[in-house]
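Support request from a user on the community tier.

User writes: "When I paste my C-alpha coordinates into the form, the page sometimes reloads and wipes my input. The last time it worked, I copied everything first. Here is what I submitted, just in case something in the input itself triggers the reload:"
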Protein backbone atom coordinates (compact mmCIF):
# COMPACT_ATOMS: atom_id res chain seq x y z
CA UNK A 1 0.00 0.00 0.00
CA UNK A 2 2.83 2.39 0.84
CA UNK A 3 4.46 1.68 -2.52
CA UNK A 4 1.22 2.57 -4.33
CA UNK A 5 1.04 5.90 -2.49
CA UNK A 6 4.63 6.70 -3.48
CA UNK A 7 3.85 5.78 -7.09
CA UNK A 8 0.77 8.02 -7.12
CA UNK A 9 2.80 10.93 -5.73
CA UNK A 10 5.49 10.52 -8.40
CA UNK A 11 2.83 10.14 -11.10
CA UNK A 12 0.98 13.31 -10.04
CA UNK A 13 4.30 15.20 -9.99
CA UNK A 14 5.12 13.99 -13.50
CA UNK A 15 1.61 14.85 -14.70
CA UNK A 16 1.87 18.34 -13.20
CA UNK A 17 5.19 18.93 -14.96
CA UNK A 18 3.70 17.73 -18.26
CA UNK A 19 0.72 20.08 -17.90
CA UNK A 20 3.04 22.98 -17.05
CA UNK A 21 5.14 22.32 -20.19
CA UNK A 22 2.01 22.13 -22.38
CA UNK A 23 0.64 25.39 -20.94
CA UNK A 24 4.05 27.03 -21.52
CA UNK A 25 4.09 25.86 -25.16
CA UNK A 26 0.53 27.10 -25.72
CA UNK A 27 1.49 30.46 -24.20
CA UNK A 28 4.51 30.75 -26.53
CA UNK A 29 2.37 29.82 -29.55
CA UNK A 30 -0.26 32.42 -28.66
CA UNK A 31 2.42 35.08 -28.10
CA UNK A 32 4.14 34.37 -31.43
CA UNK A 33 0.75 34.39 -33.20
CA UNK A 34 -0.12 37.81 -31.76
CA UNK A 35 3.35 39.10 -32.74
CA UNK A 36 2.80 37.83 -36.30
CA UNK A 37 -0.59 39.55 -36.55
CA UNK A 38 0.90 42.80 -35.21
CA UNK A 39 3.70 42.63 -37.81
CA UNK A 40 1.15 41.97 -40.58
CA UNK A 41 -0.89 44.99 -39.50
CA UNK A 42 2.26 47.12 -39.44
CA UNK A 43 3.12 45.99 -42.98
CA UNK A 44 -0.42 46.70 -44.19
CA UNK A 45 -0.25 50.27 -42.87
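"...and here is what came back when it finally went through:"
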Amino acid sequence: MLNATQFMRDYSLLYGALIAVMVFLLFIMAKSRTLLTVQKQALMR
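Agent notes: The reload is a front-end session timeout and is unrelated to the input. Residues 2-44 form the longest helix (43 residues). The chain has one helix and no strands. Escalated to web team.
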